[in-house]
Design a protein that fits this description.
This protein is of the alpha+beta class. The chain has 5 helices and 8 strands, in the order E-E-H-H-H-E-E-E-H-E-H-E-E. An 8-stranded mixed β-sheet has the order 1-2-3-4-5-6-8-7, with helices on both faces. It is globular.
Length: about 180
């Protein structure tokens, strides 16, 4: 399993979820845009948020699937979103990144900044060989985040995703250790 970690950028702290995140997780995951692209429970209840923040997010690290981070504002400490690694293949050292951004934090580069931090942690610190990101072909905002974070578009995975609206094609992006920008 990944070590429990806290990552920092100039504006963000990426840390494990805790009970203080429950109200903002509930509001974020009940949001219509978040619900459009992620197959979260519908309706997303306060119990769903509580379970995520206190049990599920932590269990995903404990069982070796990946690691989940609450994206928080370094100044105010408010939750701005979630980013995590999933479907981790420990034999091949490949993991997939996914994220959502709270409605009040959208449009400020939060997802790209958090993705760069997780990519550096995974590929440099944890010595993984590949980071993947998949986004629905119609989710242009997520695709822009992937490119801004430095990932490379590889192609389309036909009928590979599921959202509340049904099956969707996914665009596959990746980053390798050699793609990392030099540290500042």
């Amino acid at each position: 399993m990944f070590p429990e970690s806290v990552l920092r950028t100039k504006r963000l702290i990426l840390r494990p979820f805790d009970t203080s995140d429950i109200p903002d997780t509930h509001a974020s995951c009940a949001d219509a845009l978040t619900q459009r692209w992620l197959p979260l429970p519908r309706p997303y209840t306060l119990d769903d948020a509580t379970n995520w923040c206190t049990a599920t997010a932590h269990a995903l690290r404990d069982n070796g699937d990946g690691i989940q981070f609450a994206i928080t504002d370094a100044r105010t400490k408010r939750l701005m979103g979630q980013i995590g690694l999933k479907k981790t293949d420990w034999r091949t050292l490949v993991s997939e990144v996914g994220y959502w951004v709270s409605p009040w934090a959208r449009g400020h580069g939060v997802a790209a900044e958090a993705t760069r931090a997780v990519a550096r942690w995974l590929l440099a610190d944890q010595q993984f060989q590949r980071l993947e990101l998949q986004a629905a072909t119609e989710n242009t905002a997520s695709q822009k985040v992937a490119l801004r974070a430095g990932l490379h578009r590889e192609g389309t995975l036909r009928n590979a995703g599921f959202v509340h609206g049904g099956r969707v094609d996914l665009v596959l992006f990746s980053m390798l250790p050699g793609d990392l920008a030099p540290s500042a």
